Amino acid sequence: MPGATLPQDISAKEYTSEQRAIAEVAFALGERYAARAFDDHEASMAQWSDLCDTGMTALSIPSEYGGDGGIFELCILSERLAAGGYPAAKLVIATAIAGSIIARNGSPEQRERWLPSIAAGQTKFCFALTEPGAGSNTRKLRTHALRRGDRWRIAGEKTFISALESSDAMLAVARDRDSGKLLLFALPLPNDRVTVQRVAVEAPAFEHQWSVFFDELELSDDDLIGGAHGGEKALFDGLNPERLVVAAQSVGVGRWCLGQASEYARQREVFDVPIGAHQAVQHPLAEAYIQIEGAWALTVRAAQRYDAGEQAGLESNVAKIAACDAGLFAADRALQTFGGAGYTTDTGMLQRFTYMRLLRSIPVAREIALNHVARSALRLPRSY
C-alpha cells in the first residue's frame, strides 16, 4: 500500500532548508521501491544506484573529500528512505561505519584513497568483526595478525558478515599476535587469500550473510587504520554512527507501518463503521506513534552530540534500543490492525515486522547495549 499518509513528524518543522530537501528526495526514493521485497537484492542495488545519483551517499563524509553534512543528516536520509517504504541498508556499513572510521582515524593517504569513493557511493565496504564462539566480544576474538617488518599475515575466521557479495572493500578486525592489541585493516576485494561461504538465514534481509576465512592474508602498514596501537579506538569510532543509522532506519520503518495501518483503519469497515473508530484499534497505534516520536528525539540528540565532536556512546546505545523497540512495537501493532491481510505479500507488513525483530538483535544485541547503559548511566558493575 505505498502512498498512505504518514503520521505527523513533529521534529521536521525544525529542519533547515537543506535538511528538508534531503528528507523530500529520500522519501520519494523510498516510495519508489516500497512495493519491492526486502530480500530483492536487485531492487536494493537499483535503489543504491539511484541514491548515488542524488549525491546523498556523501552525507557525513568530510567536505574536503567530497562529502557534506554530518551524522544527523545521514540519519534524516536513513529515516526518510525507510519511512518512504524501502531502507538503504548499505548506508550503515559503507557510509556510517567505514566513512566514520577512516575519517577519524585514517592517515592522510588512507583518507584520500578511500573517502572520495565512499562519498560517491562507488566503494561499498563490508565489516568483518564477529566470529564463531565470540560474536562481537572483542576480548574473545581469535583472528590474529603476525607482524614481520612492515608486513602483516592474518589468519582466522569471521561469520555473519553482511553484504560481502556487493562489497568492493572490507574493514577487518584482528588481534596483534604479539601485543594482544586490536588491529583494524582496510583491504580491497576480492582477494585470493580471502575465501567465503554463504550463511543461510531465513530473515528477509537486503544483503546476504557470509563466513569469511583469512588464509595467511598479507597486508602492509599502509592498510592498517589507526596504526598498531589505535585499532580499538578506530573500531569504536564506527560503532556509534552504526547504532544511530540503524536507529533512524528503525524509526522510519515504524512510521511506514503506522502510515499503512492508519490508512487501512480509516478505510476498513466492519459492522458499518471504520475499524479505526474503535479505541481497541486507535490506542495501540497512538501508543506506537508516541514511542516512535520519543525514539526519534533520542536519535536526533545523539546524532547532534556526535556531530559536535562528542563520542556519544551512551546516547547512541539509548537511541538504538529505544528506536528498535519502538519500530518493532509499531510493526506489531500495524500487523494486528491488518489482521489476516497483514500476512499477505500485498501489504508487505510481515517482512517489516520480521526485519524489525532482526534489528533488535543486530548489529548489536539489545542486551549488550543495555550493559553499556547500565555501566555508563547508572555506574553499575560490569556484568561480563
Structure description:
The protein folds into three domains: 110 residues, Butyryl-Coa Dehydrogenase, subunit A, domain 1 (Orthogonal Bundle), CATH 1.10.540; 105 residues, Beta Barrel (Butyryl-CoA Dehydrogenase, subunit A, domain 2), CATH 2.40.110; 147 residues, Butyryl-CoA Dehydrogenase, subunit A, domain 3 (Up-down Bundle), CATH 1.20.140.10. The protein is 49% helix and 15% strand. Helix 6 runs antiparallel to helix 7, helix 6 packs parallel to helix 8 and helix 8 runs antiparallel to helix 9. The longest helix is centred in the middle third of the chain and has 37 residues. The strands form two sheets. Strands 1, 2, 3, 4, 5, 6 and 7 form a seven-stranded mixed β-sheet that branches. Strand 4 and strand 5 form a beta hairpin. It has 384 residues and is of the alpha+beta class.
CATH superfamily of the largest domain: Butyryl-CoA Dehydrogenase, subunit A, domain 3
Q: Tell me the count of domains.
A: 3
Top CATH class of the largest domain: Mainly Alpha
C-alpha-based Rg, rounded: 21 Å
Order of helices and strands: HHHHHEEEEEEEHEEHHHH
Strand share of the residues? 15-25%
Q: How is the main sheet built?
A: 7 strands, mixed
Q: Helix- and strand-based class?
A: alpha+beta
Taking the alpha carbons of the first and last residues, their distance comes to: 45 Å
Overall shape: it is: globular
